[in-house]
């Protein structure tokens, strides 16, 4: 039996993710689990280098746990909050957010589409 055991710090099977503002790169992701290819729940690891990553409001909810690094996190209309290892962040459907990554950052995220 093959047990699906992963280590969040492994940089294997990483694909290019959203670039930091003003750059062509900066982040990488690795899918751990996906329920349904079209619109299912996704569990993934996201790694990013310092920079600003802005996200428009999306038709999904995301909850993530910071495993490494520090960032300033904000949602539309809110003051930035410093987050780091152990922080758990929930982003509701339709809420725009921004991460200003201060040091190499890694999170484990669960993304759930909301029709």
TrEMBL record:
Gene3D superfamilies: Jelly Rolls (2.60.120.10). Pfam families: Cupin_3. Residues 44-107 form the (S)-ureidoglycine aminohydrolase cupin domain. CDD domains: cupin_RmlC-like. It comes from the Bacteria. Transmembrane segments: none annotated. This is (S)-ureidoglycine aminohydrolase cupin domain-containing protein. It comes from Ciceribacter naphthalenivorans.
